[in-house]
Amino acid sequence: MAIDVTMPQMGESVVEGTIAKWLVKEGDVVAEDQPLVEISTDKVDTEIPSPGAGRIAKIVAEEGQTLPVGATLAVIEPAGADAAAKLKVVAPKAAPEPEPAPAITKPSAAPRPTLPAQPMQAAGAHEVEHEPGGPRRFSPVVLKIAAEEGIDLSRVPGTGIGGRVSKRDLQRYLDSLRKGGAPAASAPTNGAAQTIARLAPTAPSTTMPTTTQGAAFKPPIYQPVEHDIVEPFTRRRKLIAEHMVFSKTHSPHVGTVAEVDVTRAMRLRDAHKDEFARREGFNLTFLPLAAAATIRALKEFPRMNASVVGDSVVIRREINLGIAMDTDEGLLVPVIKSTQEMSVVGIARAIETLRRKVAEKKITADDLSGGSFTLSNPGREGNLYGFAIINQPQVGILRMGEVKKRPVVVEVDGADAIAIRTMMYLALSYDHRVVDGVLGNSFLYRAARILEEADFEL
Questions:
Q1: 455 and 292 Cβ atoms separated by less than 8 Å
Q2: 85-95: per-residue pLDDT in tens?
Q3: Most buried among 271, 274, 382, 458, using CB within 10 Å?
Q4: pTM for this one?
Q5: pLDDT surpasses 60 at 197
Q6: Options 33, 270, 274, 432, the catalytic residue
Q7: Dmax over Cα atoms in the chain, in whole Å?
Q8: Which of 82, 274, 326, 436 is catalytic?
Q9: Catalytic residue check, 432
């Protein structure tokens, strides 16, 4: 029985991946767990291992092609004498004289590696054939593009089985609208044309625009001139951009800021940093203390540790804290799993492990998946505060500001005085569909007070 190699789920918010490079070709014999193909997503670039041993009977997806989770990438014919015999009769159609071999007289028993639609539909990744008069179904990718572009999918002609609408059908429909002509499902498209069509303004209309037709404003297009440097988006940067736009258009972001006196926390760190470095083999930074305060506050306000699923909110049992880390190719958010039972030292060790994996480019898709809340630390220089974009499908992200000494008013023996204190801003972005202002402010206030009290064991 043929084995399908499919696009894996590489994170909760990842709905598709791009074929970066095939490491095998049709006809190659492969072993189980042998790397077959490099996949690129907005989270990570990773290799897909072979789900079984055998021969590559068919490569379905081409390099550069973007496919949804569950889509078939290749078909493997299992190793063995029977499989080898079947592979020999897949290509020939008619022979001059009929052969008595059972493998030829029973074509129905031969594998059909060129039909990837069935496993894709079974995985729920593609549109499924609908019954006459029944509701049409669409893939997550098609629904995402339609929502971003304000397209009524009932108006889009589909070329798939049962008239289903594919991503290519939707792009052709968008191209035809932008050109001012009638939708043409069979019109050829390519990546460059789609990019230009997305940027180009639509033809002027003599009628007033409506909400279903999209926004009336058409941004001007800058034409590069001599000495300008044009840097095309990398695959990861393009996918990160799509994720950020999706988050901003689907989650009503609200931001709130707290000023935090971290003098005690910094004194605690300074008092233990030398002994900590000798014992653990790496430096103690302020980040584990901020992470520990965030986790304690999430325990007290579990609704902040949630995910939106359709029309429901799921309050998650485990606190899986994402830690935003910068790389040369863009931001990554590796996740520390089950932090609710961790000590500050345990959190520091976990952060250091992930930091090293990112630096050595050994981070995996599993390291980047499953986050329930995110903590971001953009750096120390000139970062007063800022509001980060929520990492879907989470409902909140906490962003640290620069730690800096400032004169502030404090109370000493019942009287006001000016003192030099180590201060920092914490900025919370939350999803107003789930989190109300009282909850958001209460969570942020509690996280700030925990950090100010600095009741941590190192």
A1: no
A2: 444 434 434 44
A3: 458
A4: 0.58
A5: no
A6: 432
A7: 107
A8: 436
A9: yes
Task: Give the model confidence (pLDDT) of 285-330 as tens digits.
Answer: 999 999 999 999 999 999 999 998 888 899 999 999 999 998 877 7
For this structure, is 261 an active site residue?
no
What is the identity of the amino acid at 194? Answer: Q
Q: Which whole-number Å values give the CA distances from 349 to 264, 281, 283, 355, 357, in the listed order?
A: 22, 10, 10, 10, 12
- Residues making up the chain, counted from first to last: 458
Give residue for tokens 């008092």.
271
Cα separation, 293 vs 74, whole angstroms: 47
Cα–Cα distance between 381 and 173 in angstroms, integer?
A: 47
